[in-house]
Amino acid sequence: LRNRLKYALTKKEVETICIRKLIQVDHKTRTNAHFPAGFMDVLQIPRSGDNFRLMYDTKGRFVLQRIDEAAANFKLCKVQKRMVSKRGVPTLVTHDGRSLRYPDPVIKALDTVKLDLTTGKIADFIKFDTGATVMITKGHNIGRVGTLVHRDRHPGSFDIVHVKDSTGNTFATRLENVFVIGKGGETQILLPKGNGIKRPIVNVQH
User: Fold this and answer.
1) For strand 99-101 and strand 112-116, is the pairing parallel, antiparallel, or unpaired?
2) CA 174, 179, 181: angle at the middle one, nearest 5?
3) What does the pLDDT look like over 91-130, one tens digit per residue?
């Protein structure tokens, strides 16, 4: 609120805004000024009509991407694991700590689900497969967006995936660093400035 959006000048003002229940994260009112918001979270300020999605830029910094009201009603969640609970209920565990019960049997780990924030139900899903559009969420290539080209399996070590961006540059990263955001070259979400293309440092300086 203070450092990025400039809605407040001091920490005290930030706390006052939160206490007055003016801030929502993923459609839930949050009064704690230190509430941890993470990748893909939707930040809403109903009084001003502003909606933002928390994303990464190509330098690994969090950026607040302004979105419209329709886009603020959903978020993408990466499936960390699929399990069966003690009572035999099939459950998905997502990257933001949610447990989604009775999912579609086709959804597996590493897939991405499109979560309807108004109902808390799965509206759609995207399979982790060759040709999917992905965003890198960790490591040296954080924030970059491209198409999944190939997956190298290394049993007992880290699986490596190769990604090709829209300018034709190819890079590799670990499997767990990849977040599927679309398929067929299209994304389900609005990307930050630069569309996840990492510019050479020579071009950045000029």
Assistant:
1) unpaired
2) 145
3) 999 999 999 999 999 999 999 999 999 998 999 999 999 9
Neighbouring residues of 118: CB distance < 8 A, sequence distance ≥ 6: 27, 73
pLDDT at 205 over 60: no
Total Cβ atoms within 10 A of residue 21: 12
How many Cβ atoms from other residues are within 10 Å of residue 139's Cβ? 14
pLDDT-based confidence at residue 3 (cuts at 50, 70, 90):
confident
Q: What is the dihedral of CA 148, 149, 153, 157, to 10 degrees?
A: -60
H or E element: which one contains 202? helix 201-205
Distances (CA, A) of 46 to 29, 51, 102, 113: 10, 8, 32, 26
pLDDT band at 192 (very low <50, low <70, confident <90, very high): confident
- At residue 103, what is the residue type? P
Distance CA 109, CA 132 (A): 15
Would you state the structure tokens that stand for residue 131, as one six-digit string? 């040709």
